[in-house]
Amino acid sequence: MGGVSPRRLLRWFRAAARELPWRTEPRDPYRVLVSEFMLQQTQVERVVPRFAAFIAAFPSLGALAAAAEDEVLALWSGLGYYRRARLLHRLAREVVADGGSLERPAAELVRLPGVGPYTAAAVASLAFGERVPVLDGNTLRVGARVLGLAADPRSAPGRRRIAAWIEGLMEGAGPPGAVNEALMELGATICTPLAPGCPGCPLAIACAACAEGRPESYPPPRRRRATVALRWVAACCVDGEGRWLLRRVDEGPFLRGLWLPPLVELEAGADPLPEARRALHPIPAEAPAIAPTVRHSITHRRIEIVPLKFSVEPAAPPADAWRWADPSSSGLPTSSLLAKLVAALDSLDREP
Ligand code: SF4
Fold it and tell me: Is the CB of 144 under 6 A from ligand 1?
């Protein structure tokens, strides 16, 4: 199995490809780059509207390089994984300082900030026509199924096998980027993890998993990383006009660069109130109201957050990294956690 006609695959792709805003012809390397950064760990439906807003604000690598980090993070809101935005911004500055062109082979693209082998291969093949296979979750799944690969496709031997298969498809089959993109599209729309649509698949005729009648058993399941439970307190100061006192997260492994009420991790059995008061010092924080617990996940961490509402008089923010802001329209980069905290505090007002 695996002796697939690449022409059949490309014909299918030309007819079935979704219209996406970065799929312009000819491909714009900057748009390809931004889309690939955004698509790392984020669904395409969530990326599309944010991509449009981001490109409208920063239409070129030069515009992105010239922007302030806060502006870039604000336009990244809703995509999560803000580290990607920071790395993309750093990349833009480095490339602009180096002459401004992204055109370089995948082996060099991979040295840029935030660019792993997957993003390098996608940009090099889609924007510059380099014959280099893209190995992402979609192409690895399609490859594992077509080849009937017993090994884990994410292992080094599995990846080598699938890379060689994709390179074979690229031989004389038109632009290498189109082969990569067709396989990514097939994995995203037809050869999905559950219930793959084999009857409508252009590769079905040569697919080992389909011939066996059990495509979903490839690739073998991966062991999940154990989840970690954490408990935080959120010290939410709200003034009489509904403005919140937000602080930029400058330390720790989570949410860096985002504006949120002070958050403190609680040890087992710890009382949240003294921790919240310590985080707010020197702001006078009298008896708070306790809002319903908020649940939030960051990668494999499941976090329970106790929101404490302190009603305070408006006063000058204690330092640069603090601001009073309307939490629903601050224009500051933040996390979806802020909206959850706002909803939790709103529920206090609705209680009898
Ligand atoms: S035939 Fe089925 S299992 Fe094989 S590649 Fe196509 S959708 Fe995936």
Answer: no
Does residue 179 share a domain with residue 75? yes
Atom of ligand 1 nearest to the CA of 197: 7
Q: Is the CB of 39 under 6 A from ligand 1?
A: no
Rounded CA separation 124/347 (Å): 50
pLDDT tens-digit profile of 150-180? 888 988 889 999 999 999 999 867 789 999 9
Q: What is the pTM of this model?
A: 0.69
Residue 203 alpha carbon to ligand 1 centre in Å:
6
Tens of pLDDT, residue by residue over 264-273, are 999 888 899 9
| 223 assigned to some structural domain | no
CA of 101 to the centre of ligand 1 (A): 38
- Domain range for residue 213? 6-217
d(C-alpha 82, C-alpha 79), whole Å? 8
Closest CA to 351 of 304, 309, 313: 309
Q: Say if residue 237 is in the same domain as residue 151.
A: no
Beta carbon of 207 within 6 Å of any ligand 1 atom: yes
Catalytic residue list: 36
Give the residue among 292, 303, 308 at the shortest CA–CA distance from 337. 303
- Number of structural domains (the chain) is 2
Q: Are residues 180 and 297 in the same domain?
A: no
What pLDDT was estimated at residue 107?
Answer: 93
Domain match, 244 and 274 both? yes
- 319: CATH: 3.90.79.10
Nearest CA to ligand 1 atom 1: 204
The amino acid at residue 349 is: D
Query: What 8-state DSSP symbol labels residue 134?
Result: -
Ligand 1 atom with the shortest distance to the CA of 209: 3
Tell whether 222 is covered by a domain.
no
- Do 268 and 160 share a structural domain? no
Could you tell me if the CB of 187 is within 6 A of ligand 1? no
Residues 93 and 239 in one domain: no
Domain with residue 159: its CATH number is 1.10.340.30
How many angstroms separate the CA atoms of 173 and 182, rounded?
Answer: 12
Beta bridge partners of residue 264, listed in sequence order: 233
State in Å: Cα 211 to ligand 1 middle.
9
Say yes or no: CB of residue 198 within 6 Å of ligand 1: yes
